[in-house]
Amino acid sequence: MSALAELPVVVALGGGHGLAASLTALRRLTDHLTAVVTVADDGGSSGRLRQELGGLPPGDLRMALAALCADTRRGRQWASVLQGRLHSRGPLDGHAVGNLLIEGIWQETGDPVAGLELVAQLVRATGRVLPMSTIPLCIEADVVGTDAQAPDEVQVVEGQHAVATTSGLVQAVRLVPAAPPACQEAVKAVERADHIVLGPGSWFTSVLPHLLVPDLARAIVESSARRILTLNVASGHETAGFSPSRHLEVLAEHAPDLRLDTVIADELFAAGDRQLEGCCAALGAELVVADVAMHDHTARHDPLRLASVYRDIMMA
Q: C-alpha angle 290/25/305, rounded to 5°?
C-alpha cells in the first residue's frame, strides 16, 4: 500500500456496466480511485456523437462518472441526470444527457482529460475517470460461424457494436489503429497504483482492449501493484459457452506477458470448472471463489459482495 496514504491507490480498467459495478464496489474502500475506460464504442448515443463530432465516444466514460457519484441524495441525483436520456421527435431523441454534457465541456476545454476532470468536480465524483487512449478506436474481430454455408470460415467483423452483437464466435480482437497512443495520465495512474483491477465486463470489447494499447499494457505488465482480475458471473453474448478458464485462456492469448496476483470468480460460475485453478496458477494468480453475484437472476455483480472481496484482498 502506498506510504503516502492509508487508503489503497486503485486503478480499475474496463468499460460499460462491468466497470460501473467494479467502481461502485471500489469507491466503498478508497477515495484514491482512477477509472481507465475503453474508447471504442460506436453504437447508440456515443456512436451518433462520434460520427457527427469525430472525438472520443463519451458513453462508457459517462457510466464510470455516474458510478463514482456519491451515495448521497445529491450524488444519486447527479448519477440519474448523467444516465438520463432525452425524449423527443427530433435528432436529440435517445441521447444520454451525460454524453451531451461531456461533449459540450470537451468543446469548451479542447482537452478530453481536463474536460472529464471538470465533469468529475461538477458531480463530486469519488476519484478520476480517464480514457485509455487519446484517440477514438475501432475494434476488429476474427469471427467464425457467421456463415451457415461455411461455419468454419473466419470473417472479419468491424466495430465495437458489431463485435458485441455478432451471431458468430469471436476468436480474437485487435484495435485499429494497431498501436494507439495511450492516455499518459492513465499510464501514470497505473504506475502509481497499489492495486490494478481488470474486469468484469464484455470480455472482447471492454476488458481485453486495455491490453492492446502498447504503453498502457506495458505499464500494467511492469507494475509492482497487485493485479486483480474479476471474472464475469456468467458467460455473456461475446463469450457464449465460455467457462471461466476459457476466459483466462483468451486473456493469455491476447496478453502473453501479463501475470496476475488474484483472480476473483463467482462460486456458481466457477462450479465444475476443473481447469480454473490451474489456469490461474499458470498466470501466477491465486484463485478466490466467492458469492459475488446478484441474487435476482440477472448476470450482474453485487457491489456490496464484491466490495467485501476486494477489501479482503487489498487489506491483507
A: 30
DSSP alpha helix (H) spans, 110-260 = 112-123, 160-165, 184-192, 214-222, 244-254
What is d(CA 173, CA 150) in angstroms, rounded to the nearest whole number? 21
Could you tell me the three cell numbers for 316? 491483507
Q: Which three cell numbers stand for residue 162?
A: 458489431
Start-to-end CA span in the chain (Å): 10
Give the separation between CA 33 and CA 12, rounded to whole angstroms: 8
pLDDT along the chain (316 residues), means of 10: 68 96 96 97 95 95 96 92 95 95 96 97 95 97 88 92 93 96 98 98 96 98 98 92 96 97 97 97 98 93 97 93
Cβ–Cβ under 8 Å, residues 233 and 268 = yes
Distance CA(40)–CA(138), nearest Å, equals 5
Residue 286 vs residues 17, 139, 228, 259: alpha-carbon distances, Å: 25, 31, 10, 11
Strand partners, 33: 10
Percentages (nearest 5) of helix, strand, coil residues in the chain: 40, 20, 40
Cut 0.90: pTM above it:
yes
Q: Please give the backbone phi and psi of residue 256, each rounded to the nearest 5 degrees, phi first.
A: -65, -20
